[in-house]
Amino acid sequence: MATNRCSVGNNDLGAGASQAKVALLLAAIALWSVVVGCQTTGSLREGLTVPPGNRVMILRGGTHSGTFTTRNMTIDYTFETKGDKLRVSGTWDIRYRDIDRLSMTLFYLDADGTVIDYHPFFTRPQRAIQGRVMDNRFNREFELPPDAKGLSIGYTGRSRLGGPEGKGRVFRHSPF
Known about the structure:
Layout: H1 2-38, E1 56-57, E2 63-69, E3 73-82, E4 85-94, E5 99-109, E6 115-122, E7 128-129, E8 132-133, E9 137-143, E10 150-159, E11 169-173
Antiparallel strand pairs: 1-10, 2-3, 3-4, 4-9, 5-6, 5-10, 7-8, 10-11
């Protein structure tokens, strides 16, 4: 009889330990699910090819400049490489007034124009006077991937005015 009580007592402790193990296992599975769910299998943009008209060759040595023109925006840019760094600066002029937000992305391309990496950089207008954006400059430095032979620019933005139901006008350019 005493043995049965000990056995029952051990089973009770075992059940408590089992519940703790199950709870710990469930917590580990939940944590693993969150970590795996937040991982990506790569960029949806990497591997896409940019047509020749939207590519700029990365030239080594010295400062290089150009103009990138789309239906919504003109971007005057200057870039230079120093070792494994790329400094890009310039200004943009956009055809819409009262810009609410603007996001530009720099795409690195291999020799065939295929995207190998990208860096988003966000620029919001600091202030607007009579509908004109007063701060339209950018100046950024990026790591230069060893295989990068070219670059391209994409953007998306929204103006406060125009568009359906007065919600503003969304504008974008994809180099693809």
